[in-house]
Design goal:
Length: 136
């Protein structure tokens, strides 16, 4: 029986795909790749479990139709609460990578950069795009 499956990426964009319970994770990835090729290789997560067995069916992972609008929700690229690597561009043009979690504060990140690179904490400004990251 076909049902809608929501795929949510890290930017909180949602892709709705119609699937069958007997579809494999590989089939699902191919459908995602057909729609958003750039993100198809990201890990798929359902209820905190990474769907890493490409031959397993949705039913084997207990991904079945429910009473919620939009059906079950899978996270593409991990859930928003998972840790990730952040690449920081330095004034010299170099780059460093820092591993952060949603609980990592701007102050903690500045402290790590100070320790690793030697840029004084008070002379540092961090940006995400054009928005300066500040402590609340």
């Amino acid at each position: 029986m076909p049902c809608d499956l929501c795929i949510k990426n890290r930017q909180q964009n949602i892709l709705v795909i119609t699937v069958e319970e007997t579809d494999s994770i590989r089939d699902l990835r191919q459908e995602i790749k057909a729609r958003v090729a750039a993100e198809a290789d990201e890990p798929l997560v359902f209820n905190g479990v990474e769907l890493d067995d490409e031959d397993a069916t949705l039913l084997e992972y207990n991904i079945v139709p429910d009473d919620c609008p939009g059906g079950p929700v899978l996270h593409l690229g991990g859930a928003p609460w998972r840790s990730f690597d952040l690449e920081c561009q330095l004034p010299s043009g170099g780059h460093i990578k820092e591993h952060v979690t949603p609980e990592t504060t701007v102050a903690q990140l500045k402290g790590r950069i100070t320790s690793e690179v030697g840029i004084p904490y008070l002379c540092m400004k961090l940006f995400a795009g054009r928005v300066e990251l500040r402590e609340p």
